[in-house]
């Protein structure tokens, strides 16, 4: 048997605030021997893992501070020693992380993997705006899409817009001007749009406006990563939208 | 001032298991005076709200056991008495519920609303399959879509398929044959596909196969609502897919 006694838990840390962790996640953290911390996750999470050695393995945006292959080796090495390794990922581990590759490698090495779900920041962004991601008057669903693609190409914005779903765009702030320009080729200028930075944390900042004004206003307000961009009719239900691009609580409007 | 002292919390109960509730949700339940329970939520959640009077307001599928307008009135009546009303919804309250309408009505009535996020069943379904909803080798995102539309029409399956995102289809089991047939007009027959019934609960059952065989195999296996249907390249990473439509743990294959 090549099976080892240790295991790896891929743990979703949620959008930021520690009380948005699940009860199951809190339990796994309490039992962790090794904590691998992504830098999109709230570092205070370590306070919930009093017995764990904490290893930071952040990899923000394009800057690859800890190569993926090294993280994989770290997880396996400690699990093979019989330890409980908890790999913490921001949001839900199963959206836009490298969880798929990590699970495959662990499976290959006959190491047990647990997955603990969490709240993805797109949901927290909607909660911050006081809206639902879907609204039966406006759409039949929501698409979570990353603007940061492996080969540096752009997603097919026309195809995404054609679905009529709410768009929740992750990792889009560095190209907000070009992606909104692409969407404006398909969607009306008046389409409701929002940016929520640091969704689900104490630092949350929100902007609600229309698609044609989104890039300019977000830049003027100094909004940057990490943030979720939300676009679609359902966003028009936000209290701030009635006043059209008016300041919503959370920051002073710079325009 | 028309503002009242009571409040309503829209609380996401997650997919089923109580330990998939967030810490914040557990706190709100402990402080609840009135608990309005959806029947997609785990009824055991009431054990976490020892001081609350429990009112069941289920509304499964097409059968409207408690009309939406009545639920709205219930929430408002109790909140106006100064009580803390917790409205429990399965999954995340901000996806495919009527949260948008409920928030609007409460705002109109000057009643404070808190929203507490949770784990949507699509994420739990992916965890059950041991896969990520997105995988950079396969797709740039995931679309959550309901097959159950307000006007009984079908979503635009061709447009959804054209995005190349993973599709996570909610409330689709009653029309699984027609929706897979529609998707097959755009997607290859060999597209990986899965059904996860009761995702994230002890009763979870899973099937992994290809799009062309999905409806027949799901029916043969007796899989029904509530379930999430997952379709796309990323689903091919599931351990069960290698063996192609082979039994995956959770139930005996009926075909």
UniProtKB/TrEMBL annotation, chains A, B:
Domain of life: Bacteria
GO BP annotation list: methylation; siroheme biosynthetic process
RNA-binding keyword on record: no
InterPro entries the record matches: 4pyrrol_Mease, 4pyrrol_Methylase_sf, 4pyrrole_Mease_sub1, 4pyrrole_Mease_sub2, CobA/CysG_C, Siro_Cobalamin_biosynth, Uropor_MeTrfase_CS
Pathway(s) annotated for this protein in UniProt: Porphyrin-containing compound metabolism; siroheme biosynthesis; precorrin-2 from uroporphyrinogen III: step 1/1
Gene Ontology molecular functions: uroporphyrin-III C-methyltransferase activity
PANTHER family assigned to the protein according to its UniProt record, in alphabetical order: S-ADENOSYL-L-METHIONINE-DEPENDENT UROPORPHYRINOGEN III METHYLTRANSFERASE, CHLOROPLASTIC, SIROHEME SYNTHASE-RELATED
Name used for this protein in its record: uroporphyrinogen-III C-methyltransferase
UniProt source species: Caballeronia ptereochthonis
């Amino acid at each position: 048997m090549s099976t080892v006694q240790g295991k790896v838990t891929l743990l979703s840390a949620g959008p930021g605030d520690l009380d948005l962790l699940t009860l199951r996640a809190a339990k796994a953290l309490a039992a962790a021997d090794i904590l691998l911390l992504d830098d999109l996750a709230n570092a205070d999470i370590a306070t919930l893992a009093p017995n764990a050695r904490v290893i930071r393995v952040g990899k923000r945006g394009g800057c690859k501070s800890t190569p993926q292959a090294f993280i994989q080796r770290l997880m396996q090495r400690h699990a093979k020693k019989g330890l409980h390794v908890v790999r913490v990922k921001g949001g839900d581990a199963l959206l836009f992380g490298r969880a798929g590759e990590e699970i495959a490698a662990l499976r290959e090495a006959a190491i047990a993997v647990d997955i603990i779900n969490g709240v993805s920041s797109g949901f927290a962004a909607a909660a911050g705006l006081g809206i639902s991601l879907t609204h039966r008057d406006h759409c039949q669903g929501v698409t979570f899409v990353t603007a940061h693609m492996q080969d540096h190409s752009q997603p097919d914005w026309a195809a995404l817009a054609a679905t009529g779903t709410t768009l929740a765009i992750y990792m889009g702030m560095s190209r907000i001007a070009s992606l909104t320009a692409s969407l404006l080729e398909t969607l009306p200028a008046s389409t409701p749009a929002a940016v929520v930075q640091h969704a689900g944390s104490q630092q949350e900042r929100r902007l609600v406006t229309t698609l044609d004004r989104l890039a300019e206003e977000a830049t003027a307000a100094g909004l940057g990563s990490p943030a979720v961009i939300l676009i679609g009719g359902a966003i028009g239900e936000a209290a701030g939208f009635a006043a059209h691009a008016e300041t919503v609580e959370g920051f002073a409007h710079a325009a």
